[in-house]
Amino acid sequence: PSPRSSVIIIGAGVSGLSAAKVLAENGIGDLLILEASDRIGGRIRKEKFGDVSVELGAGWIAGVGGKESNPVWEIAAKLGLRTCLSDYSNARYNIYDRSGKIFPSGIAADLYKKAVDSAIQKLKGLESNCVEDATNRTDFTLTPKTPIELAIDFILHDFEMAEVEPISTYVDFGEREFLVADERGYEYLLFKMAEEFLFTSEGKILDNRLKLKKVVRELQHSRNGVTVRTEDGCVYEADYVILSASIGVLQSDLISFRPPLPRWKTEAIEKCDVMVYTKIFLKFPYKFWPCGPGKEFFIYAHERRGYYTFWQHMENAYPGSNILVVTLTNNESKRVESQSDEETLKEAMVVLRDMFGSDIPDATDILVPRWWNNRFQRCSYSNYPMISNNQVINDIKAPVGRIFFTGEHTSERFNGYVHGGHLAGIDTSKAVLEEMRKDERQNDKQNQNF
Ligand code: FAD
């Protein structure tokens, strides 16, 4: 017979590990974690680049210094994770045109304000259309056309929406953001979390309740339990399953369900947009960009929206590392993922030479993460449409029989963030524990009746 566990957790990212930790703390000793890749961490991932650790996935602890304490910030502080304050709101004052001139800050500030006002109007229009189903009221909003307008539109919509609509992360936890700059990586948090309930030795997890390289392909479920089949032909049984695969994976055909998921579930999963967000790292022999206060971020204004727009230097995080990071999103991310890194490097160098002149040195190394083409991710994070009712997220989160769903995309208030994944994992495991208690009560009753 196949091994049977009380709960199988699929995925060892922050949500899966948080869920497992809560279950273990509540006496569920026979849990099993199946992870498709060869490591824990999921979308929290460091990699050596040059002499330092860079974060390919989550880089910031967002939402610090407010009325409530961000739980991820608390864990990071307890572990002494090295971080540095990082404020990208200054980016709008360092916008370069293609001839290397910086747009005067007055013009940039003015255009930024107009873009925010326009986005607010658009949001209001959408809200009233939603409620009244009236004719389109959004035609008075601005459509960005010039390179600087497009650059500002990109900063506002792909990074900073906080000025347009309140984002729970900043409202609840505060407006500050800290960049993780620790050689052990953001993922150190997860190793320490795992260490609390899995057996480790010399910094390695040696516990057979965590199985790596186990790609789950099928979940067969009934009122008695769930049968989990993996790509390598293994079969595992459980009373309950917690599935933490990303929204991108749920939209793909990696995992099939028998019987299939109900329509309300698949429709909700389709309604959530996926955001692809790619940080490309470039290493140089020396620094040629401005540093100092307010200069950590700079922007390139090009006639194509999102074309190598958003730049950051790593001098605050790792002085002397001579590393630049450029962030691409969605279509630009997908485009770059599908070409060679040499082509990407060439494109980035043309952009940098536009901004800083032809005599800057070539990058000596490049690192291009591929979140979209990773079949265990298929996205960077969930992105619910601006006007979406809570029903969509509630349906995405709702269990189907004995299969429970978790992950950042199931966090109503903090989707898209590490703390969203962490809190979702805790929430889902509590819901499973509640079901297990109900089962127990029912079994007791049945036994009494006999
Ligand atoms: P994941 O980390 O994706 O964990 C799910 C796990 O399931 C993965 O390990 C995956 O391998 C595994 N899996 C998938 N399919 C299967 C299968 N079939 N069988 C078995 N295992 C499977 N958040 C912030 O707070 N701050 C930031 O600055 C930030 N920046 C980001 C930048 C990038 C580039 C990316 C990609 C993400 C960023 N995020 C950021 C978001 C944050 O990383 C995620 O919200 C969070 O890590 C998601 O955790 P999770 O547990 O929900 O999912």
TrEMBL record:
One Pfam family it belongs to: Amino_oxidase
Cofactor(s) for this UniProt protein: FAD
Domain Amine oxidase intervals: 14-433
Domain of life: Eukaryota
Binding site for FAD: 15, 35-36, 216
Pathway per the UniProt entry: Amine and polyamine degradation; spermine degradation
GO BP, sorted A to Z: polyamine catabolic process
The UniProt record lists the keyword Plastid: no
Family assignment from sequence similarity: Belongs to the flavin monoamine oxidase family.
Protein name: Amine oxidase domain-containing protein
